[in-house]
Design brief:
Elements (H helix, E strand, L loop, with lengths): L1 E6 H5 L8 H11 L4 E5 L5 H7 L8 E6 L3 H8 L3 H7 L4 H14 L4 E7 L14 E7 L4 E7 L5 H22 L1
Parallel strand pairs: 1-6, 2-3, 2-4
Antiparallel strand pairs: 4-5, 5-6
Helix pairs in contact: 2-7
Length: 176
């Protein structure tokens, strides 16, 4: 698993040109005959919603699972209880397993996973509110980003996570 950390100043500069990223992702995936699935916690299905807002998305987006509780992460998605006990549900390791299990479960070429503390409550000594782990699983590898958005509104964290997800998915598609 490759790990990448990105903090608020770098993240904020990414979102000024985000219009049309999901439509572009559907086109790129369709053109390459690739599929994608999702496993979402803190985004609550927003990434899947943004895919299905695009006409023709069914050619590329095969499905997703909202895994808001640990029970669902473990018993339905297949994340290891040992992973959550050792690293918590908001961690590189959990996001990695979420992405890899979604890819397997939905039989997709790629998968996106998001888990984090969107606030206003939550967080721990290691990860504050505004921390999100975003994983992308491909046939070649899995990469997980630790995004530190800082103290911004919950909806902003969720929306920016969904936008960052499609941005890095587009990069992953180019590598396939």
């Amino acid at each position: 698993m490759k790990r990448i950390e990105i903090n608020a100043p770098e993240l904020n500069s990414l979102f000024s040109e985000s219009e049309g990223w999901y439509a572009l992702a559907v086109k790129e995936l369709t053109d390459r005959k690739l599929t994608v699935s999702t496993a979402e916690s803190c985004t609550g299905g927003l990434i899947g919603k943004m895919f299905t807002d695009v006409s023709g998305a069914s050619a590329a987006f095969v499905g997703g699972m909202i895994t808001y509780t640990n029970h669902i992460k473990i018993n339905k998605l297949g994340v290891s209880a040992e992973t959550i006990n050792a690293h918590t549900e908001v961690s590189y390791e959990c996001a990695c397993e979420m992405a890899e299990r979604a890819r397997e479960l939905f039989e997709s070429d790629l998968a996106i996973a998001a888990t984090g503390y969107a606030g206003p409550a939550g967080g721990n000594g290691k990860d504050a509110v505004g921390t999100v782990y975003l994983g992308i699983a491909t046939p070649k590898s899995t990469t997980v980003w630790r995004l530190s958005f800082g103290q911004i509104p919950r909806d902003t964290i969720r929306n920016r996570t969904a936008l960052f997800a499609v941005k890095v998915l587009l990069e992953a598609v180019k590598d396939e």
